[in-house]
Specification:
The structure is a homodimer.
Chain A (H helix, E strand, L loop, with lengths): L8 H15 L6 H8 L3 H8 L2 H26 L3 H13 L7 H9 L4 H27 L9 H21 L3 H13 L3
């Protein structure tokens, strides 16, 4: 059983998630993690097992933080469309590192079945959230019924990932703004 | 100046591109490249400079092969919609490794300006191709004019990347089929 941790776990995971977000899994060494956290190797191994353990906990940390952001957008939005606009605009304005979970998918999903399942589960949760938003928009007459709310939800999650990739290869802000508008215009 | 190469460059790049496609850049070692090509290190260094050199040539090789596939879809398709369907269906049926260029974007674009420019240039070319297809569909009355052909082209390229990421985290074939249908339905 691990000894009592003498550090702030939240703070440590924040630093590790930032590092993995910037460099990816394979380019990040244990020494990088030691340097970024100012913890020694044995503390890290005691608490997380190995590099993959730190990575998986960092993914969960990032996912929880992202969910909190999304929830705050929902609370602040007056309409289903403006909720979606907030989520998608956030995606194109979060810097050049893209989304840690999309980056993880392309780097790891084909090599690590456990991580793939984690990502699929995260996708299911995001789709459930999108389905609720689209259903509201369909019921209040803002959105069309050409596709079911579930079909639109799958579409929105996939499109969001595409937009994160696109925003990593171009700095053309007006192009990204227009891309978000086009993507959401399918709904109305 | 490099000595005359005593190997089939096309065949070697095919093997290297397959390896990078499966493992990514950072997880692939020079030893992996030696093992997969059956060439010694000095031959590889003479011809490509370093690991990044092999990677960049592999990206170009993959891009050219992908362009050839896309061109053959265009020749075989009777309508703009069926051309797009072929391209998108190919994307969800090409295996669990996703797209080498999308994977490259999420792993490398934020760390390597030269590779980022290569990917952006590739994106521009794909968008040009999509713009031509959409323009034809708009002129023949199959596609709507709610957005310009250029806007739809940006959307299609980004959506295609999203679909490649999505197809890495789920094996649900009917969900992916439905995703392609929804994505293209914006056009008609």
């Amino acid at each position: 059983m691990p000894k009592t941790e003498l550090f702030n776990r939240e703070e440590i995971l924040h630093k590790c998630a930032d590092l993995f977000h910037r460099k990816g899994y394979n380019a990040t060494s244990m020494q990088d993690l030691v340097d970024t956290t100012n913890l020694n190797r044995s503390s890290l191994y005691n608490s997380f097992g190995n590099k993959r353990g730190i990575y998986v906990e960092s993914l969960k940390f990032y996912k929880d933080k992202s969910s909190q952001s999304v929830q705050s957008f929902l609370l602040d939005s007056k309409t289903p469309l403006s909720a979606l606009e907030s989520i998608f605009n956030y995606a194109i304005n979060s810097g050049k590192n893209g989304c840690l979970l999309s980056n993880c998918a392309t780097e790891m999903a084909n090599m690590d079945e456990g991580i793939k399942r984690f990502l699929e589960h995260n996708g299911d949760q995001m789709e459930e959230l999108f389905e609720n938003i689209v259903t509201k928009g369909q019921l209040n007459g803002n959105f069309n019924y050409k596709r079911t709310a579930k079909e639109y939800a799958t579409y929105l999650f996939s499109a969001l990932q595409g937009i994160r990739v696109t925003s990593m290869i171009t700095d053309n802000k007006s192009k990204l703004d227009s891309l978000v508008k086009t993507t959401l215009s399918i709904l109305y």
